[in-house]
């Protein structure tokens, strides 16, 4: 690799990393989340905000939350087991992110859950049988249906690209 090429590659990578840093906010850093922690809100709408990082464990303290919308962000990490502690959460939108790991069995304890959207992530494994206990559940969109495969594939490709970029931006360390 010539020096010149190496230099342009570095420039490109630092440019890309600069772009991904712009507006890089975590859930915990949003004013909406802070307000919810302080005053027990019933709805938290953080969809399509380019949020990064993982879903904070302090979510367990949002005990009045009936609707949680985290869709279409750049969230990573696993679905927190703490979410399962709520008896009032009815709408849970976590689709179109880069969440990994399996769907926690604890979600089977969300007795009020009606809508559960988690498609277009990088989740692995099968749906826990515990979800069968959710009698209120009306809409489950996990991306398993064959007609959703095209959408999931696009999501996976995007997630892979994002992961590769994150790896580059972190200096290439695992
Ligand atoms: C929940 O709130 C309590 C009281 O403010 C705090 O001590 C605790 O650390 C919080 N839990 C989490 C997981 O952040």
TrEMBL record:
InterPro entries: Leu-rich_rpt, LRR_dom_sf, RLP_Defense. Its main location: cytoplasm. It holds the Pfam family LRR_1. GO terms for cellular component: axoneme. The keyword Electron transport does not apply. Keywords: Signal. The keyword Manganese does not apply. Transmembrane segments: none annotated. It is found in: Cytoplasm, Cytoskeleton, Cilium axoneme. This is L domain-like protein. The lineage of its organism: Eukaryota, Viridiplantae, Chlorophyta, Pyramimonadophyceae, Pyramimonadales.
């Amino acid at each position: 690799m010539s020096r010149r090429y190496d230099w342009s590659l570095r420039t490109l990578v630092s440019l890309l990393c600069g772009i991904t840093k712009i507006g890089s906010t975590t859930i915990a850093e949003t004013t909406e989340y802070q307000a919810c922690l302080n005053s027990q809100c019933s709805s938290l709408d953080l969809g399509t905000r380019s949020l990064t990082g993982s879903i904070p464990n302090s979510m367990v303290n949002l005990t009045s939350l009936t609707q949680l919308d985290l869709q279409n962000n750049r969230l990573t990490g696993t679905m927190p087991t703490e979410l399962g502690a709520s008896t009032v959460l009815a709408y849970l939108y976590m689709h179109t992110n880069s969440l990994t790991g399996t769907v926690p069995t604890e979600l089977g304890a969300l007795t009020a859950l009606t809508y559960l959207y988690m498609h277009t992530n990088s989740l692995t494994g099968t749906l826990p049988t515990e979800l069968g206990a959710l009698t209120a559940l009306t809409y489950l969109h996990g991306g398993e249906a064959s007609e959703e495969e095209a959408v999931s594939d696009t999501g996976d490709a995007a997630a892979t690209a994002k992961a590769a970029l994150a790896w580059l931006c972190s200096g290439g360390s695992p």
